[in-house]
């Protein structure tokens, strides 16, 4: 099948518009600003928000569309990557075709449009993983550095786009849950979120192995701070899932009871830190630099078996396609936090998830 560049698939004027908008400056927002602005979702505020997104989203989407066309080692020509590129160009086209937003009726219509854009991009992560996985077979590992940097930029930008759309859409909820401003929970209990994420990870471990190590959580359940619970759930879920798998596989044939995984939530002045500790045998020091690179996984690759270009629905398994840790770190960094892994080979691993509790750092804009 001949590979078609965007300029052959879409009208010339549209591609020129993509390049023009891709050169414009992006505007970052902070968690605190989203929270303060969204705390009064009046008709006027929703209108201002929609007008901001009408200009900001095409800039961000255009930047990614351009980058998807110019990837090294032939990655841009992989069918899965071409499909993702088309989604980005189509979303840019739809948002640019929308006229100036002047009143509440325009705003409601635009909200429906960006909702559809968000759904269109639901499967970007597994689809890109499929494209990179196809490429991985044909190039040596030293060349993956450039691909890794691109994926960091690409996925960080995607987190931002989805946060902005989701936040705006959720502000329309006529009956928001208590203490929420869009996606943000102003009184989120990290202990409670960690408990829910741990239970979800344990249920998957049970499904795959028939048993699961215990998880002990230490911290004050009444301590709260403003954050996005879905982001924290995703990060803790990934870390606990990794720990459960390591412990389960280390003790599967042992007479000893598998040691519990420990989660400690610490409330600092600048950061809230969540430590996930396991005794799953650890990672060799030579392997540590690889754990934040895409496509590093010690498990079988579910993409090989379960993803086709039509559906791209990837079931959650105990081990993914090597994206859990790098993407979790991006979610942490998106609001000014970080993720660090310290390992003792022969014993276990400690993951430190730092979340900025100040909420005033600007979005990183790749």
Automatic annotation (TrEMBL):
It is found in: Mitochondrion matrix. It catalyses: L-seryl-[pyruvate dehydrogenase E1 alpha subunit] + ATP = O-phospho-L-seryl-[pyruvate dehydrogenase E1 alpha subunit] + ADP + H(+). One of its GO terms (cellular component) is mitochondrial matrix. SMART domains: HATPase_c (SM00387). Keywords: ATP-binding, Kinase, Mitochondrion, Nucleotide-binding, Transferase. The keyword Kinase applies. Its EC number is 2.7.11.-. CDD domains: HATPase_PDK-like. The keyword Mitochondrion applies. One of its GO terms (molecular function) is pyruvate dehydrogenase (acetyl-transferring) kinase activity. GO terms for biological process: regulation of glucose metabolic process. Its main location: mitochondrion. Residues 229-359 form the Histidine kinase domain. Belongs to the PDK/BCKDK protein kinase family. PANTHER family: [PYRUVATE DEHYDROGENASE (ACETYL-TRANSFERRING)] KINASE, MITOCHONDRIAL, PYRUVATE DEHYDROGENASE KINASE. This is Protein-serine/threonine kinase. It comes from Arabis nemorensis.
């Amino acid at each position: 099948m001949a590979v078609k560049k965007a300029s052959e698939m879409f009208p010339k004027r549209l591609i020129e518009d993509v390049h023009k908008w891709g050169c414009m400056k992006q505007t970052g927002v902070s968690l605190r600003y989203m929270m303060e602005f969204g705390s009064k979702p009046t008709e006027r505020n929703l209108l201002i928000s929609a007008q901001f997104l009408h200009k900001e989203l095409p800039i961000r989407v255009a930047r990614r569309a351009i980058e998807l066309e110019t990837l090294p080692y032939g990655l841009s020509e992989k069918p899965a990557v071409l499909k993702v590129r088309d989604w980005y160009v189509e979303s840019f086209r739809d948002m640019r075709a929308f006229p100036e937003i002047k009143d509440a009726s325009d705003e409601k219509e635009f909200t429906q449009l960006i909702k559809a854009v968000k759904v269109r991009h639901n499967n970007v992560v597994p689809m890109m993983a499929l494209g990179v996985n196809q490429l991985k077979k044909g190039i040596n590992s030293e060349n993956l550095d450039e691909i890794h940097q691109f994926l960091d930029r690409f996925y960080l930008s995607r987190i931002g786009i989805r946060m902005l759309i989701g936040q705006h859409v959720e502000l329309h909820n006529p009956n928001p849950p208590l203490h929420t401003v869009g996606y943000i929970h102003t009184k989120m209990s990290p202990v409670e979120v960690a408990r829910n994420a741990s239970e979800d990870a344990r249920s998957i471990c049970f499904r795959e192995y028939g048993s699961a190590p215990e998880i002990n959580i230490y911290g004050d359940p009444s301590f709260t701070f403003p954050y996005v619970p879905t982001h924290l759930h995703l990060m803790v879920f990934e870390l606990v899932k990794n720990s459960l798998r390591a412990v389960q596989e280390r003790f599967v044939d042992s007479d000893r009871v598998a040691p519990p995984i420990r989660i400690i939530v610490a409330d600092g002045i600048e950061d809230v830190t969540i430590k996930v500790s396991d005794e799953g045998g650890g990672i060799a020091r030579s392997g540590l630099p690889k754990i934040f690179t895409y496509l590093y996984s010690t498990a079988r690759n579910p993409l090989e078996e379960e993803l086709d270009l039509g559906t791209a629905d990837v079931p959650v398994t105990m081990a993914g396609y090597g994206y859990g840790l790098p993407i979790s770190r991006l979610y942490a960094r998106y609001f000014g936090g970080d993720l660090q892994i310290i390992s003792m080979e022969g014993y276990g691993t400690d993951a430190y998830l730092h979340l900025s509790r100040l909420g005033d750092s600007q979005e990183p804009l790749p």
